[in-house]
Amino acid sequence: MDDEDGYFGKSVAATYDDASAGMLAPGVVDPTVDFLARLAGRGRALELGVGTGRIALPLARRGVPVHGIDMSRAMVARLRDKPGGDDVGVTIGDFATTRVDGTFSVAYLVFNTIMNLTTQQAQVDCFRNAAAHLEPGGCFVIEVGIPELRKLPPGQRVVPFHVSPTRWAFDVYDVATQAMSSNYVDVAEGRGNYQSIPFRYVWPAELDLMAQLAGLRLRERWEGWTGEPFTNESHRHVSVWEKPVNEGGEGG
Length: 252
Ligand SMILES: C[S@@+](CC[C@H](N)C(=O)[O-])C[C@H]1O[C@@H](n2cnc3c(N)ncnc32)[C@H](O)[C@@H]1O
Known about the structure:
The chain is an alpha/beta fold and 252 residues long. The protein has two domains: 10-147 and 202-242, Vaccinia Virus protein VP39 (Rossmann fold, 3-Layer(aba) Sandwich); 149-198. Helix content is 25%, strand content 31%. It has six helices and eleven strands. The chain has helices at 10-19, 26-40, 56-61, 73-80, 120-133, 204-213; strands spanning 45-48, 66-70, 89-92, 104-109, 134-145, 158-163, 167-174, 179-188, 191-200, 217-222, 236-242. The strands form two sheets. The chain has a seven-stranded mixed β-sheet with strand order 3-2-1-4-5-11-10. Strands 6-7-8-9 form a four-stranded antiparallel β-sheet, with no helix packed on it. Helix 5 (120-133) packs across helix 6. The radius of gyration is 18 Å and the shape is globular. The protein starts with 9 loop residues before the first helix and ends in a 10-residue tail after the last strand. The structure holds S-adenosylmethionine (SAM). S-adenosylmethionine is lined by residues 6, 8, 49-51, 54-55, 69-72, 75, 94-96, 110-111, 113, 116-117.
């Protein structure tokens, strides 16, 4: 880990936007912002893991008041340096537990970031925290990949996803605990530099149960931001859980 900023310290923050260029393309950002702006309506939006503002900044430009939570000061410094960077309020802290003032019509956690919480308890806490920030009728939105266990041959735990002369990258799965890690070896002048980032993979049905524990119920599930149907071939999902209007706060 880099420093107190977690896995998104200064060196990662410095290259995050370039490394995520595909995710910053208008074809990706615009449908995401359309979807979230529709749910925000006239209310406020809360982004968990706001990062460098990939989604928060364009959503704020649409006129939606946006607040973010992130543990990485380095990522947030990048957000602040961008045009409109001061228009997004940010609280530094762990998004599984950090509370901010006021209520929101939508809270969202995109780009697989729920998996950065590496225990089931932290993921459950995150749902409870999101729910606590929602006004009745408000929604919590998650975008996350489907675990790629179907790529694992019997007896193997490793799925390579990039192999080139300069980079070897592979995921390692522990199907007993749902722990996984993404691992990178960057090769320069014949020497490798190794980095490993831990995650916890999580299935849609388990997320639905976490939502239920937090007093939320599933409203929509799509394959992507433009309403593609979610099927057994989908590689990711965009799910929306709603806080019921008449049933108050957290569930059991
Ligand atoms: C993959 S980046 C996504 C950033 C942004 N949402 C986007 O879509 O580009 C994950 C972000 O979540 C933050 N993060 C990860 N775990 C966190 C936690 N437990 N509490 C607060 N922030 C966290 C990281 O610092 C990083 O900025």
